[in-house]
Batch of 3 targets.
Target 1
Amino acid sequence: MDSRVKSISQILKQRAYMQENLSTPNILQATQSYKQALLDTAQLNKSNEHSYRTQLQNLLNTLKDPPVRIIHEPQAEAGQGDIRPDFKVYRQVDSTTSLSYNALVGFIECKKWGKRLEFDVKGKQIEKYLEVCPNILLTDYNRFILLSFGNVIDDITLFPYGIDSNLFNNNATLDSTTALKFSTLLSTFFTTTPNITSKDELIKVLSTQSFYLGLKARESYHSTPRTSFHKFFEKTYETFGAITRYGLSIEEFCDLLGQSVVYGLLVAYLESELDSASPLEYVGVESIATLLPKEFHLLSEFIYFSIPSFHIPEPVSYALENIKKTIALIDKPALATMLNTQIESISIYLYEDFLKAYDDLRGSEKRKEGGVFYTPEPIINCICSSVHSLLKSHFNKPKGFLDSNVKVLDFATGTGSFLAKVFELILDEEKSRVWQQEAIREKFLKDIYGFELSFVPYIVAHIKLSSILKSRGFSSFDSENKLQIFLTNTLDLSTQADYQMTMPLLLLEEQDKLARRIKHTDEVLVIMGNPPYNNKSKNNLPEIQNLLSTYKQGLNETKINLDDDYIKFMRFAQWKLLERYNPAECAPLVLDSRQGIMGFITNNSYIWGRTHRKMRESLYNAFDRIYIINLHGDSEKDRKEDENVFDIRVGVCISLFIKYPEGHSGNSSLGNHCVDSTNFERTADLKSSSPSKFVENSTSTTANTRIVDSTNTDSQKVDSKIFYFSTSDNAIYKRADKYALLNDIAQKGLDSISWQNLECEAPYFWFIKRDLDSHEYEEFFALAEDKALGDSKAIFETYGSGNKAERDRICIHFNEADLHNLLHDFCTLDTEAIRTKYTLKEDSRDWSVDRAKADVLEHFTKAEKSPLIQQIAYRPFDTRYTFFSGKSKGFWGTPSAKISKHFLLGGGQNLGLCFTKDYTGYYEAPLIADSPIDIHYNGGQSYIAPLYRYEQTTGDDEKQTHKLKKLPNFTESFKAYCQTHKILKSKSPEQILHFIYANLFHPHYRAKYAQYLRIGFPRINFEVSKESFEALESIGRELVELHLLRKIPQDSSIYIDFRSEAKSSPNYTIQKLNTKNRFVDSMLILNDDLCIKGVDTAVYDYTIGGYKVIEKWLSYRNDYTCSKLELEHLESICKILKRTIALQKELEQIAL
C-alpha cells in the first residue's frame, strides 16, 4: 500500500475513534468531572495561571485518541529558544507509516482564568509559536480558541457562568449544543492535519520560515566563532560577495540564504509527483540541498557550503526541520485552483507578495530598496512587441527576435517576464511544431540572455521560462541545452575575475565567467527590462562610476541626483550597445557594428530632472531615434487622480532608444510611427474617454514641441529625433486606461498614437514637453546666481542651502528643556550609553555619536547654556530649538555655517528669503525667515538668501578690534541696476524684498511662469509702474509680517474651543487622526476634548513647499502634549493662512 494512502487511512481511523469517544454522553460526563475539579481547586483561593493545568490535561487525556500524547510542561527543544507552550501534543506514528518520527500535532497555551484572550491571539507569544507550529489551542481553562496559521477557527466557552461557587452548580451543566461544539473543536485539533490552502496562509508561512531561518543562521554565526559552521559560513559569505561584488552585509546574506532555502524547497515540493509521498519526509536536514530540482545546481552548491551538513547548529537544524514540515502542509491542488493556475506556476505568482511579507517581518524596505516590483503584463507587451516590430522595420530582421544575429539581454531579469514575452513572440513566428523545437534549441538556449543578482527571482525565472518550453514539448535540458540566465551583478564591469575564492563556489564562478564574457565580448542587439529604482544604490563599483561620469561632466551642481540604480543600468546598456570600451581605462574598442535597441520601463525623473541634462544630452547624441511614453503617476508631483501603473510613488515612463544600422536613413519610420489621430480606436476599457483626448493638443505647439501629423506627406520626410507621448496631456489617469493604451500599442504598433516631436536644445535637452516661450522672463533678475549654467544676472550675492542635521530627532527639539536634557546626556554619558538611550543605529559619513559628543563637550560647556542654543526654522510656522556650533560633522552633520552666521550675528533682526531651484508641480515654495533654516524648511532642498550680510572688520582702536558691518546682500550688478532705476533707486532693501515676496505669492506669476519655476531660481521683473510697485510692496510687507508671526490677524471667527465637560481639566495632547477625522465641518479636531473652529477647507489645505502647513505641523506632534502657548500658536497659524489667501486674491487684481 502507498505510504500516503496508509497515512490517510490511519487518520480516518483516528477520526472515527474521536467521533465515538467525543460523543455527547461521553463529553458531558468528562466535562462534568472537569467542572468539579476546577471548582475544588478554586475553593482553595490559591488559584493562578498554573492551578488548573493538571485538570485540563486529565480532561484531554480522557477524550483524546490513544496515539495522541500530551506532554505537560515540555522542555524547550534545541533551537527553539523561548518556544515553550504549556502543552505539546504529538501523534505517535507506527514506524511502517510514511512518517518516521513523532509528528507534532499542535501547542496548547494556558492563561489565567478569565483573562481576555483577544489580546493573546495576536500577541508576540502566539506569533512566536506560529513560527514553529500552525495548530494552536489557546485557553483560560473555560474558553477555548482554536488557531490555524494565526486565524481563529473556533471559539467556545464551556461554562458561561464562570467558576463562582454560587453559580457553578449542578444546574449549570454543559448543554448538548456546547458539548457538540467542544467535541468538534477537539476533533479538529487532535486529528486534522493542517493544510495550507490559501495564498495568504502560504505567503505568511513562507515569509515567517524564511525570516526564522535567516535569524537563526545569523545568531549561530555570531555565537559560534570557532566552529566549522562559522568557518564555512564566513568563507561562503566572503566568496559570494567577492564574486558578485555587491557588498552584502551578514544580515543581508542571511536574508538571502533564508529566502533561497525556503523558495527552493517550495519549488521542489511543487514539482514532486502528486501521487507519491513527498521526498521532504525522507531526507534529513543535513542533505537538504539534494532536494532541489536538478536545474538548480547553483543554489544547491550555495546551500551546501553555507550550511555544512556535518556541522549544522541545532537552531538552524530545527529551523530547517520546521521548514520541511511546513511546506509539506501545502495542499497543492487546492492552492492551484484558488490561484487559477497550474501547480508548477504557484511559486511564480507568489514571489512579490513573499518579499513584501518578508520586509514586513524585518521592518525593512529591501523590496523597495532593490526596486523589486512585478512588471504588469501590458508594459511588457508594449515594450517587447514594439522592439519586435522595430527589428523587422528598421534592422532588416523580417522575423524580429527570431532572426539570426539578434541577441537579447534582459539586464534585470527578475522573474523572467520580459524574456517570457520574447519567447512567446518567437514561437508565434514559427507555426510548425518542428521549427519551434529548433527555435528553442538554436535561439532560446543560445541567444536570449538574462542577468539577475538574487537567488529567489533567479529560481522563479527558470521555472517560468522552463514551463513555457515544456508546454511546447521541449524537456531536453542538459549541460548543452540550458537557459542563459546568469546569477551576476549586471553593474560589475571588471574585465577579469580579480578575487580569491576562500570557498569553492565553482558553479557561481562559472556563471560569473560566462556573464563577464557576455558583458565584454558578445554583441547583443537588444537590451531591455525593468531596472531597479533605488536612489540609495549600493552599486558603487569603480567601472560603473567611471561610465556614469559621462552623465555628470560639466554639471557644476552642488547636488547631483544621478546615483539611482536605474540610471546606472541605463548607462550600462548604452555602453554595452554602442561603446563597450574598458570602463576602467576608458579605452574604446572597435565594434563590428554600433547599432541596437534599448527598451525600458523606468523612473521618469531622467526625462525632466534638471541635473539629468547631461544624461539626456548623451542619449540624444548617441541614438538616432527616441520614443518616450510618459505614464506619470507620481504621488507628489502629478494630479491626485493620476494613478501609477505600479504600486509605487514615483512616476514612470517607457523609453525606446534606437541606433540604426550603418547606412539606414531613418526616414521611413516616421510614416509608420506618427499617425493621424482619426485612425486611433480605443478599446472597450477606454470608453470613459473619447479618442480625441489623445490628440487634443494636436493643433498647438510649444517652444520645444511640435505635433507630427501623418496626414502631411512632407512631415514624413522630416528627420525627427525624439517622439513624446504623455498620458496626462491626453487625460489618461486611470491605471486600467493606461494598461489599455499599452495593450493597444502592443497590438497595433507604435503608430496607434499621435506623437509630439520634441526639439531638444542646450543646455537642458528636455525629453518632456516644455512651454518655454517667454523670452522676457529670461531677461529678468534671478534671485540667485545659477552657477551650474553660468547665469550671473542675480539679485542676492550670498545664498546657500539650509542646515542638514542628519539626525533631526537628536538635533532639533520643540522646547529648550528637552534640548538641555539631551545635551546634559551627551556631556555625561559614554558613547554606547547615548546610543542605547536614544536608540541610535549605525553612524553615517556625516554624523556619528562620537563626533556629536565631542562637539557638545567642546562648545556647550564653554558657552554654559546661552549663545549656542538657537532657534531654527524647521518647517513652515514651526520654529524649534537646537544646539548650533557651526562645526561640520559635529552635533550637526552638514551645517550651513557661512549663511547661518548672518542671522546669528544679526540677533534676529535679519531677514532671509527662502526659495527652491527646481520645483515640481504648482509653485508654492517661497517663505520668509529670520533665523537659520533646516534644509527642508520649505520643501525639497531649501535655499536662503539673507537680506543683509554681517561682516567683521578690524577697527583702528586696539580695544575695538572687532566691529560688525551690516551690508545689503545684493550683487554688484543688481546694485548698479538699482542706482539707475527710476523706482528702485529710492527704495530700501526691505522694500525691495517686500516687492519680490509679493511677486512670488502672486497667483498670476506662479501660473504664467510655471514651466520656468521648475527648472531654476525664480526671476523677478522690476520694470513695473510706480503704482504697481507700491501696491505689491504693501502687500508683500504684510505677508512678511504675517509669516514671521510679527502680526497676528484679529479674527474672532477662528478660535480654540473645548467640550463643555472638558473645560475644567482640558486635554492638550494631540490625537493621531487621519484627514477624514482631523478636519470635520470647518473644525480642526485635536482630540476628543479640543478643537479649533472656523477653519475652512482652503486654510486646512494651504500648502507651502509641498507641505500642507496645518497637517504637517500636527503630524510632528501626534501623541505630544502641547502647552497653552503652542495651541495658541496653532490658532494663529490658521488665522495667518486665512489672511494670506485673502491677500493673494488682492494680488490677482494687480497686473504684473
Note: The first helix runs from residue 3 to 21.
Target 2
Amino acid sequence: LEHESEHVVWFHISNTGQPNKFSLKCEATGDPERFMWFKNGKSFVVDGHRVIWQRAGQSGSITFLHPQVDDQGYYQCSVSNIYGVAMSHIFEVKTGVLNYFDRRPVKDVIVEEGQPLTLECNKPYGVPSPTIFWLYRDLKKSYAMDTIHREHITIDGDGNLQFSFVKSSDSDEYRIYQCAATSPVLHDEYRAGDEFRLLVSPAERTYICDANGLVRHEMHVEILNAPQWVDGPPADLNVAEESNAELHCKVFGDPQPIVRWFINGQPITDFSENSRRLLSSNGEILKIVNLNHDVDTAVYQCNASNPLGYIFANAFINVYAHAPRFTTEEDEIVPTILGQDVDLDCSVEAAPKPEVKWMDNKEREIKDSRPRFHILSNHTLRISAVTAKDAGLYFCHVNNKYGLNRAKRKLEVYKATQFLVELKPAKAIIDANSKFNLFCEAKADDRLEIEYWWYRDQILLNNASDSAYRIDIPNKLEIVKPRGRHSGIYTCVSKTKVDTLKSKMQLIVKDVPESPKLLSIDCNERRALVRWAAAYDNHEPITKYTVEYETAFHKNVWIPALTEEQTDQKTFEAVINLSPWVNYTFRVIASNKRGDGTPGYLKATCQTPPSYPYTNPKNVSAAGTEKDNLVIYWEPMSKEECNGERFRYLIRYRLDEPGTSWEEFEVEDPLQDHVVIRDQPTFRKYVVQVQAVNAIGRSLMTPEMYIGYSGQDIPVAAPENVKVTEVINSTSIVLEWDHVDPDSVRGHFYGYKILCWLVNDAGKRVTDKPKVTLAPPTERTAVLKDLQPMSTYQTAVLAYNSMHDGPTSSWIYITTPEGTPSAVRNLHAKALGANTILTSWDAPETARGRLRGYYIAFKGTTEQEKEEETWVPYPRSFYLYETAKPATRYEISIWAETGGGEGEKAYKIVNTWDVQDPAKPEMKITLSDSNSAEVIWLPPSKGMPGTMFYVNYSLIGSNKWEITDTVNVPQKQVIIRNLQPNADYSVVLVAKDGDRFTESEAQFFHTVNRTILIPDMTVVKKKELERGTNADRDEERTFMEYQYGTGCTDIGS
C-alpha cells in the first residue's frame, strides 16, 4: 500500500448547506482486484451517495460528500487479489469545529514611523485549536493576496502580528493587513478575519547628537503632509427641484488643509444669494436646500490646500423639473369583486412634487376616510370591502407649477365566481392504463366569461402535446391510458377577467418504475463499475434492479449481469466482470410487482483489450461413429470468450496405452463443434484435449483430459443354453442363458436383449414387433413380465453394444399357465320379496383361462349375520337367493374361477323388503296359434314385485277356472294350452311372495279359428303389442332391466 491518509482525519458538520467533504486515501501498487473498507472492525459499505469511490475499480480512496456525526470512528482499508490481502494502518476520523470570525469593518491604525506595533487577531473558537496566519490584501485587486515575509514583522504564539518597528513602506492606501485561521477540519481552506490599514506618520520629535559629551547638538524634526482624500472626492448628484443636496469634500493633511468651494469655476463667495447654500465641518460639507433648476444646476468644485500642495475635484448637480406625467395608463378600467379591497393607481412623476387629489364622477374630492377610503403615500386610492355602489368613475388630479394632469379610473364591480362542481375525490389511486376523467364546473357573474385551464403540477395541459390528455369540452379533462408519469396534483382553474378559482386533487397512477438514471460507467481491463441513481417507483415499491449488457457481437441481445434486490438506497453501484476484446454497452432496469420499467441507458461503452483465452471449450467428448474412426466433440465457445483475434481450437489425442505419443492439429473455424479422425483401430481407448487459442496465445487454463473410444463393430457371439428356470405366475417367467465373452461384443457392452414374440396355435407370430426385455452385462437371468396367460411365446437372447445388436441365440418356445380372471361385469342385484334377491352378471372382460363357474356370497351387514356362499357353473349368469331375511341390508359379492384360481370380486348392496303383499302385477298376452296363448308377467314399476306367479284363466260363459303351474323368476312367461278356437277367455295373473299374493286386473282375449291365422296378434289390456323373440339366455336380464333398470349401488369390483 502507498499514499495513505494521516492517522487522524478531521471533518466538520456544515451549517450553511455547503458540503464539507473529506477523503480517506488508499492506493496500492501491483494488480489490486478488490478494495474494501472497515469501520470499527466491521465491513463498511460505500453507498455511492454520501460516500463514493474516487476512482471505482482502480483506487481504494473514498470521499465523504455529506459528513455526519455518525461518520466518526476508526477506519481501515483492505486491498486484495489472487495473491493475497494487504491492510492499511487505522485512520481515526473525528469531527471538529471552526467558527467564523466576527464581522468588523476595516480598522485604520495611525502609527508613527519607527514605533513598535501589535495587531491583535481575535481568533474564533475551534477544535482542534486553529492555526493563525497573516496576509496582505490589495483593495484595488480583490483577488490579490500574499503572505507576509518581512524581517521586522513576526507572528507571536497567540497569533498577533508584531512589528518590531514600523516603516513608512508598511503603509499603503490600498494595502490591508488581514488575519486568517486554518484548521485540519477545513482541508486546505481557511477563514478570513480582522482587517487593518496602517496610516504611518513620519517621526516628529527632537533628536540629540552627543559626541562623547564633548559636543552636543539638538535638532527638532517636524513632519508635514500634503492634503489627501479621506473617503474620496465628491460624487455627482441628480436631484429634483425644491429638494435638498449635499456635497462632501473630506480631506486630511498637516497642516490642516483649507477647503474652498466653486460653482462653475467661480468662488462660491462671489454669489450674492447664498442663503440656501450652507457649509459645515470646516467647509468640508456643502448643503443646498430648496433646489432651483435654473439656479442650482451647475458644476461644483472642491479645492483643499495647505503649504505642501492641494487636491481638486469636480461634482455635477443636475436639478430636474417638469410638469406631472403619469407612469401608467391615464384611462384605465379596474374590475374587482364584491367585498374585496381594490387599489386605484395614480403613479406620477413631477418635479417639484405635485399636489394630488382624488375626485368622484361628480367632481367631489375624496378624502382619506378610513377604513373605507385610504390614500396611500404613493397616491394610490385604496377602497376596502367594495360594494356595488362603489362602481363608477374616479379621477386622479395632479399639478405643480409646471402644469396639471388627470387620470381616469373606471371601477367595475362583479359578483365572485363560485364552483358548482369541484374535483373529486381529493385523492385517487388508479392502475396504469385505466381511463380517468376529471370534471369541474363554475358559475360566474352574468357579465363575465369563464375560461377553464387544466394543470398538472403547474404544467399547463391545454393544447399539451401529450396524447394521453384529451379536452373535448373545456371543463372536462380525460386521461386516456394514464401512466406513472401522469401522477401529480391536478388543478382545474376557472378564470374570469376579475377572479380565478382553483380546485385540486391528487392522482396517483400505480405503474412500472421509471428509467433509472445511469450516473457513470468506469471500466478497466477486467471489470466495469456501473453506478445509477434510484428510479422513481411510480407508487409501487421497487423490488429489484437488473443490470444488463449487450456486446458488439450480439446487438440487441441483452444479457442479465447482476440483480440488486437491496432497493432502499439513493444510488447504487455494481461491479461487472468483463471479457477481453469485447465492446460492452450497459443498461439498468427497475422492476416492481407491476413489471419491468423502461431501461435506463448511458451513451458510453466499455472496450476491453485482447488477452489470452481464459477458458477452454466445455462438454468435450470422444466417440467413434464408424468402426475405424474417432470423433472428438466440443461446445463452441462464444465470441465473448474468444478474448482476441484469430480464434481457433488446438486438438490433441493419443491412445491410452503405454508408449503412445500425442498427435495434435488446429481447427481454425471458431463455430466448428467436432472433428473426425479416420483410420483408427476399432474400439480402443483414447485420451483427448481441446484447447482455446487466439492471436495472443493459448488459453491460460490447462485443458482437461477426456477419455473416449474409437468406433464399435457388430458383436460376433450369441448367448447359449437359453432356458426357462422358473414360472412365477401366469404372466411372469424367469429365463436363463450363458454369458458371452466381453471381447466378442466389440464395443461398449450394454448387456442382453431378450426378444419375445406371441405366437398362435399354428406357431406363427401374431405381432409385428417382439416384446423386448433388457438385462445388464453382469446378469445371466431375466424376468419376462406382462405375458398373456395360457399363451405361447417364441423367445431368444442376444448381446448388444451401444451401436449394434449381436446374433440371436437358438429360439425356444414358452407356454404360460392359466391365470386368475378379472372381475365380473354388469353386476345387478334386486330384492324381489321379503326373502328373495335376484342377481345377474356378465362374464369377466379378461378370463385369463377357462372359466369354470362363479362364487356368490351373501352377508347381512349386521354383526350377527353370517356369510352364505354358493357356486354356480359357467355359463350360468344369474342366481336367486331365497333365504334372505326381511328388511335386511345385504352385501353381495361375486367372483369368477378358472383353472388358475379365483378372480377379483365385484360387490353390490341391496335391501330386502318388509313382509307385505306383492304389488299389483301387469301382463301381456300373445296368441301363439288357435289353441294356445303366451302370458308374460310385467312386474310393477313400483312396489315389491314378488318372486313367483301363476295364471288363472276361464272360458267366458263358464264358471270353471283353470290354473297354470307356478313359475319362479327370472322366468316371466307361461303358455296356456288346449284352448278352444274362436273363443273368448278371461285371464288373471297372480304374483306371490311366500304365502302372500296379489291378483292383476282381468284381461280378455279371443282365440282364432283354425282356418284363420293372424300371425303375431297380441292382446294387452285389449291392445295389440308386438311379440318379443328374446332367447332364454337373456330372459332374466330382460326381466331385471325392464323392471328395475341398473340402479343398484356398486361398492367394488
Note: Residues 1012-1033, 1042-1053 have pLDDT under 50 and may be disordered.
Target 3
Amino acid sequence: MVDTPELRGTQRVCLKCDVPADPTHHFCGRCGAPLHSRCGSCLALVAPEFTFCTACGSPLTRELHTASAPREERRTVNVLFVDLKGFTAMAERLDPEDLRRLQVDYFNTAREVIRRYGGVVEKYIGDAVMAVFGVPVETEHDGYRAVLAGLDMQRALDGKPLAGRYPMRARVGIATGEALVDLAAARNGGEALLSGDVVATAARLQTHAPPGGVLVSAVTHRTTAGSIRYADEPLELELAGKSRPVEAWLAQASVRRPPVIDDEGTPLVGRAAELDLLMAAVRRCVSERRAHLVSVVGAHGMGKSRLVRELYRRVHDDGDLLVRWRVGRCLPYGAGGTYDALAEIVKSEADVLDTDDPATTRERLTVALAEVLPEAEVSRLAGLLGPLAGLPGRPVRPGEIEAAWRDALLALARHIPTVLVIEDLHFADPAMLRFLADLVEAGGDVPLLVLGTYRPELLDEQPTWPSALPGMLTVSLARLRNAEMRALVSTLLTQQDIPTDHADRLTRLTGGNPMYAVEYVRMVAERGGAALDADGGVDVPESVHGVIANRIDLLDNAERTVLNAAAVLGDRLWPGAIADMLALDMIGVAGVLRRLQRRDILVSGTVSTVAGEAELEFQHQLVRDVAYRRLPRATRAALHRRAAAWQQRVSIDGRNDLATAVARHRIQALDLSQSLGEDTAADAEAARTALLAAAEAAFAVYAVESALGYTEGALNAWPADHEPDARRGAELLHHRLQFLGHPDRFYRDGVKDVARLADRMREAGDRTGEARAETLLGLAELMRAERDKARDHLDRAITLFRDLPDDAAKTDAYAELARLHLLEFRTDLALPAARAARDLAHRLGLADAEVHALVTEHATRYVAGDLTALDDLERVIETCRAQGLPTLRRALHNLATFRQEEGDLPGAADLERESRGVHGGQISLVLSHSEEAELAYFGGDWVALLRAADEYLDHEDEGAGTTDWDLQLRGRRAWIGALCGRPAGEDIARSLDVAHRSGFVRLRYNAYAHGALSRALDGDHAGAAALLADLAALWREAPTALTLEWLPAAAHATALTPAAAPAMAEVVRTSLRRTRWVVAAEALVAGDPVRAVTLYDEIGSASDAALASLWAARALGDETHLDRVRTFAARNHADALLRLARTR
C-alpha cells in the first residue's frame, strides 16, 4: 500500500531557516535544504536520511510501503564553476602546509557563499569549486541565486587575503541547462551528483571570465536579465568542444529590486471584484482611521503584484484619498536579511541610496523622521532604525529595536494614512510575520493598512496566518476563466504585433495563469513562431519551468512517484493504470491521487472511458510536461511499456477506444529504447501491432489522415523480411488509405505498387490479400474511367472471394462491381450486384457498407427511370445523418445530381453544400467534378467557369487521369472558350479519345454532345451532324434518365445543325423521364427557341437561356432577344456570340 510518510510525534525542521515544516515535507520550501527530524520521544535532531532516532532508537516514521522517489532525474540546473587565477604558479612557490591553509580558506569561503544562496557544492578539484543550484529542490530563482553567489564570492575573495596573507582573484563561470541529477548524491552533499553538457559549458565559461568577473551563459542571462545588471553587449566565445560560437554575458551587480512578472502594458483581466474589495479596504482604513491587515493569496503567476499595482493606480487617481504608499519585498534564499522588506521601505521613505556613505544615510534618515516625530524622539529612533538603512547598530535590549520600528511606522501613518505593501510573504521569516501582525495590532486607531501578498505554500508552515488578527481580510486569486484568459492572451499578442492565430492554443497552454501567458507571449516575441511548433510541440519558458518544478519538488516521495507515472500515462489517468505501472496497491495509489487533487495538480474527469475506474486529468498540461521531461529515458520507456500493457488488458474486444493511446506508448517506448542503444526487437514488434490496431481504429471513425500516419509508422518499424504475410497486409491497408486520402499521389505510384503487391500475394497463396488488392485496383481504375481494367480487377476479386468467408472486403468487392455496372448504365447487372453487397453487409452488421450498396441500388433504379427511387434515397440519407455514416457524402451527391436532373437547381446546391461538410466523407468516393465551374455555368458567369475549368483540368497529377469523368466541363471549356476568343485547344479531341478508350456510355454521351456543339459553332456542320448521329445511335443502345450533362449541348448543336433534328427529336421523344430539361431540349429541336428561353429561365440556367436567346435572335431577328445576347456577351467578353446573332 502506498502512503505518505507520516511522523509519529516528530517534527520536520530546517536547520538553516530554523522553522518547522509540514510532516510530509522532505525539503525546506524556503531554501531547499533537506529537513531534519525532531524525535518525538527525546527531542533530539536526526539527519534526514535516518528513520530511527540516533539518540534513543525510537522510530521516526510509521510508513508501510512508501513509494520511493527516483534516484535519478533530468533537471534544469545552474552550474557554477570558480577557479583561482595564478594558483598553479602560487602552488609552485608555497610550502605544502601554506598551500593547504590557502586551499582550506578558499574552499571554506566558497562553500559558505554557495550554501548561503542555497547551492550544493558538487566537488573540489585543485583550485576549482563546482556547485549546482536547483537540486534537490528546483525553483524559478535558481539562476538568480547562482549569479548572486558568484558576485558575492568575488566580493568575499577580493575583500580578504586567503590564509591571511595571499591576495588571490577568481574567475566564475555559470551555465544553465539540462543535466541528469543523482538526487541521493544531492542529499548527501553533492559529490558526483550530475552529468551533462551544462557542466562542461560552465567550466569553459570560467576560463574566459576576467579575474574578478562572473561570466554566464545566454540561458542564464535570459532568466536573470531583470534582476541582474549585465554588460551592455554579449561576448561571442569559441569554447573548446563546441561546434559553434557561444554567447556569454558578464554579470556586474544585483538589481536591488527585481521587476515583477509583467509590466504596465499587461492588462488586468478578470480581477474587478478583487480590486473593488481592496479599494474598499483602503477607503475604510482611511475613513475609520483604523489599522488593517490585508492579504492577497494566489499561486505563482496569478497576478498578485499586478493587482496591487492596479490598486495603487486606483488610489493615486482618487482625488479624495491622500495616502502614503510604500513597498517592500521579502527576498528568497539568503538574498536579504530577515527584515529586508522593512529595510526597503525605510530606505524608500528616507530617500537613502545604496551608494550613500554612512553620514549621508544618517542625515537622510534623521530628516525623514523629523517630519513625523517629536524632536526628542528623532535621535533615538534614528539610531534604532539605522540597521535597516545599512548603518551599524548598538546593543539593545530584547524587543527594543522591533518596538522602535513599530513606533516609526505608526508615526508615518499618523502623519499621512499609509499603505505598506509587503510582497512575497512566503519568503518571509516567522519573525517578520510576527512583526507585521504586532504592528497592525498595535496600530489601533492609526490609518495604516499592511497589505501582504503570498503563495499558498506559506500556509504549510504558517497555517494560522489568515487568522493572525480578528477581521483580517484575505483576497484569494483563482485561475482566470477561459474567456478572460483568451482576452488577455489576445491583447498581449496584439501588443507584440504577433498574429492572434496562436491565441486559442496559448490559452489552453497557460491554463488560466496570467504570468504563464505573459511569459509565453514574450517567448514567442523573442524566438518567433519556432517556439510554437505546428506539430504540437512547444517550449516551456524558463521562468514557468522553474515555478512548476518547484511545485513538484515540494511533493513527498509517494506523490512524486505517482505523478511521474501519471505524466507518462497521458492526458487521461486511472488509478488502476498507475497502480499497475508502479506495481503498487490501487487503494494506496487512489489516496495519493486524491492528495494531488487537493494540491490542485489533478482534477476529476466528467466521465470515465474505462469501466469501474475513476478518470482524472492534469489541472495544467505544463505540470505534466515538466514532470515527464524530468524522467530519465530508461524510466520513461519502462513506464510507457507498462501503460500500454494495462490499456491493452482493459480494452474490450471489438472496441478500439484505447488503441491510439496504446500506439502512442508503444512508439514512445521504441523511440526511447533506440536512443538508448538497446535491443529494440520486442519494442518494435509491439509498436507495429499497436500502430496497425490504431490505424484500424482511426479508419473505423473515418480519420483517414490519422490512420495513414499510423500505417506509415508501422511499416517504418517493420524489417522487410519479418512476417512477410502480415507486412503485405499492412502495405495494402496503407495503399488503400493513401488512395482515399491522397488519390493523385496514389495514381502516380500506388497503382503499380498495389499490382506488384497482388502478384506477391498470389505467389504466397494469400487469396484473401490478393482479392483485397484486386478490389482496390478495380476501384482505382473505376475512378479514373478505365472501364475494362476496372471490370477485370473486380471480376478477379469476386472470383477469389467466392470461396472465402464473408467479410467486409468481400462486401466492398460486390459494392464496387455494382457501381461499375451503374456507370456503364447496365442496370440489369448493377441491381443484382448492389443487392448482393447490401445483403452481405446487413448480415455482417456493416452499417456504412449497407447504405453504400443501397445508394447504388436506388441510383440504378433512377437511371432506369424509376422516380420513386428518390424517396428511398432520401430515407438512406436520413439513416446516414442519424448514424453519422460517411456514405452520407455520396448519397447527398447522388441525390443532388438527380435533383439537378429534375430541374431543381437550388435544392441540388443545398445538398452539395451539405455533402462537402460530411465527417469522414473522403472514405465515400464520388466521381471527380468541378462544382465551382458547374455553378458558374448555371449562373451565366463564363469568366469564372473558364478560370475554374483551368484550375481543375490543368492541375491533374501526371498519369492520374482523375479528371476524365468530367468530360462535360472539358467540352464546355472548348466551346465557351471559342466563343470568348480563346484559341482552339485539344479538349474535344481528348474527350472523344477518353470516351472511346474508357467505354463508359456516360462519357461517350458527353463527348458526342459537346463535341457536336463545338464543331457547329466552328462552322463544321457536317462534323457536328456526324457526332449527333453517333449520339442518337448510342441512345438506341443505352437510353438513360441521366441526360442533363449532355442533352442541352446536343439541343444547342441541333439549333445550328438542322439536318440532325430528326434524330435528336427521336432522342427527346423516347426519353425515360420527361424532365424540364427534356422539355426545353424538345422545344429547341422542334425549332421553338423562344419557348426554350422561357423554360431555361424557369429552371435557372442562365447560360442555356442566353444560347436559346441567340438562336431566337438568329431565327426571328427579335431585338429583345438580341439585346439579351449583347448584355450576356459583354459581361462574359464573348464577342463571337454577337457575330453569330447577326448571321442567319
Note: The chain has six domains: 72-254, 272-476, 638-702, 723-796, 805-918, 928-1142.
